């Protein structure tokens, strides 16, 4: 897991007042699967998220890592992760 959310600090509420907290859960994670590379990014539910510089940087580096264009071999996160 590269990024996680701990929902103890706020209370997301859905329709009809349902408590939507899920505890600490991953938002960005990666792993290697056979010869392939998998990266999941839960950011970007709305189009505006893609105009944020940090989200663009994360996506660019993730694609580069997944395409094996740059970055470490499996076993190390994409360059710049966690910064």
From TrEMBL:
ThuA-like domain: residues covered: 2-66
Which source organism? Novosphingobium aerophilum
Q: What is this protein called?
A: ThuA domain-containing protein
Question: InterPro entries, per this entry?
Answer: Class_I_gatase-like, ThuA-like
Q: Which residues cross the membrane?
A: none
